[in-house]
């Protein structure tokens, strides 16, 4: 197994992809809207990925947040609300919001598990800041760290009840960035005291099974390297102050916040301390570059991966999707 999570190009594996994935044996895969048509097609695709890997616990990831970030969409799957809906309810009725968030996340998990997907890149623990770029915006769970952590915990619990692993993101916090890391490198010049607010939700949820780094430069911690490429930030902040010991993946290597070849980007995030490197586009030439930069996954990273996947219950709670959505909607009516 290699320390890579890779995307794929379309709705079914090509022969070239099948041969490449057998040879490289990535730690997992990630799916996007381009890979999704309908329930029958999607389940066939995830089954084929498990067949190639030979692992029943193969991590198959997706970004299914709700709102504007949803790879599985109507008419075949229900729409889910953005984080802002639950943040608004929390300000009025915190316990009601937590219960609504848990039901919502469990509903997402039931939907994903039926499709053969077992990891959701959710929840966002980015603390929303006024005036920051809207790339986080209504995806956030609030402006207050305690609120973000409470709703984030409910999300992780709901996903686990439905049989899916959650990924907290974007550690150590993307909420105060003034640009979109998909487009360029955000630079955060805030002092360390201000950054304490950003890492607070991650500290409170430091026992999460997986986390994703932020391609953001924090000058107070490392003036030259963004978090994903910074041994200082990963060692001293993420593994140190936050005390996160789960599986740490980079954000997508294809984002324009990063520079250099894909081999250099891959080697860079792994050298900095990420357990696995994430590459999303499904572009074969790029994936070949990523694969050229890695050897077998390290023992500690493999143990973290196994431990994260073991948090999925063998027989998850039997709640029905429609019932969970009805429960969530009834609770959200208090907003």
UniProtKB/TrEMBL annotation:
Pfam families: Glyco_hydro_3. It catalyses: Hydrolysis of terminal non-reducing N-acetyl-D-hexosamine residues in N-acetyl-beta-D-hexosaminides. One of its GO terms (molecular function) is beta-N-acetylhexosaminidase activity. Gene3D superfamilies: Glycoside hydrolase, family 3, N-terminal domain. Keywords: Glycosidase, Hydrolase. Residues 25-294 form the Glycoside hydrolase family 3 N-terminal domain. InterPro entries: GH, Glyco_hydro_3_AS, Glyco_hydro_3_N, Glyco_hydro_3_N_sf, NagZ_Beta-hexosaminidase. The keyword Ubl conjugation does not apply. It is an enzyme of class 3 (hydrolase). Its EC number is 3.2.1.52. Belongs to the glycosyl hydrolase 3 family. PANTHER family: BETA-HEXOSAMINIDASE, BETA-HEXOSAMINIDASE-RELATED. This is beta-N-acetylhexosaminidase. It comes from Sphingomonas naphthae.
């Amino acid at each position: 197994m290699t320390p890579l999570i890779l995307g794929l190009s379309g709705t079914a594996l090509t022969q070239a992809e099948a041969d490449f994935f057998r040879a490289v044996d990535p730690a997992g895969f990630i799916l996007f809207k381009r890979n999704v048509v309908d329930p029958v097609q999607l389940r066939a695709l995830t089954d084929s990925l498990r067949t190639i890997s030979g692992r029943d616990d193969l991590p198959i990831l997706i970004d299914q947040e709700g709102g504007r970030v949803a790879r599985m969409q109507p008419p075949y799957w229900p729409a889910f609300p953005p984080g802002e809906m639950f943040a608004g309810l929390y300000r009025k009725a915190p316990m009601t919001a937590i219960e609504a968030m848990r039901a919502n996340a469990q509903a997402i998990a039931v939907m994903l598990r039926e499709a053969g997907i077992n990891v959701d890149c959710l929840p966002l623990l980015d603390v929303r800041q006024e005036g920051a770029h809207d790339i986080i915006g209504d995806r956030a769970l609030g402006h207050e760290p305690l609120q973000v952590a409470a709703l984030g915990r409910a999300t992780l619990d709901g996903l686990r009840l439905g049989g899916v692993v959650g990924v907290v993101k974007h550690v150590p916090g993307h909420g105060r960035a003034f640009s979109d890391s998909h487009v360029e490198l955000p630079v955060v010049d805030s002092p360390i005291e201000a950054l304490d607010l950003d890492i607070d939700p991650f500290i409170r949820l430091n026992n999460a099974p997986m986390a994703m780094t932020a391609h953001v430069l924090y000058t107070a911690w490392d003036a030259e390297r963004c978090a994903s490429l910074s041994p200082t930030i990963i060692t001293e902040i993420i593994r140190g102050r936050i005390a996160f010991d789960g599986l740490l993946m980079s954000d997508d290597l294809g984002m324009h916040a990063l520079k250099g070849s894909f081999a250099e980007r891959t080697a860079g995030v792994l050298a900095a301390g990420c357990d696995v490197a994430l590459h999303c586009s499904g572009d074969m030439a790029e994936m070949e570059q990523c694969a050229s930069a890695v050897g077998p996954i390290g023992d500690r990273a493999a143990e973290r991966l196994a431990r994260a996947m073991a948090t999925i219950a063998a027989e998850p709670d039997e709640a029905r999707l429609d019932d969970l959505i009805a429960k969530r909607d009834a609770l959200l009516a208090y907003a």
